[in-house]
Predict the structure.
Amino acid sequence: MKVTYRISEEDYVGARDLFVAHERPYLRRLSRRLMPWMGGALLLMQVAYMLIVPDWSPVLLVCGFSVGAYFLYCGFAIRRYFRRSYRKDRRFQHDFVADISEAGIHLVTPTAESQMKWASFIRFLESDKIFMLFHAEWIFNIFPKRAFAAGEVDEFRELLRRNGVSSI
């Protein structure tokens, strides 16, 4: 099957959401979800400290606000990183053409051409809108489902599984 597509910012950010939802190891994913809450709680505690303690320490206050703001930012930083990364990357301004077969995926863009055998993929993730095929933990290709003709999404998923690319 041959698909032609362009990766939109929505696809790229959707890949980020899918990545975070299935991120390994579990503690990293848990900490990423807890950090904004911890940051917000720390900021609220600093405000309460200012209101309750009459002679508060400016050093303690600055440290508390700094750590709280940092934790709050870290919870949202990866989404910002993905958006900025998408906007800076010139590859996303052009069409991708993928020829998908039993041998692998032949991917062509105006600036690059690659032949990827199925053994080069360690896993794939899938959402309602995209497939993510991983070469390594942080290196992946995005294939929007809208690029496939009717019935080809199921055929692609089966091709991945048949060639040993696991979904987790």
Summary: The chain has a mean pLDDT of 90. The longest strand covers residues 96-101. The chain has four helices and seven strands. The two ends are 24 Å apart (CA to CA).
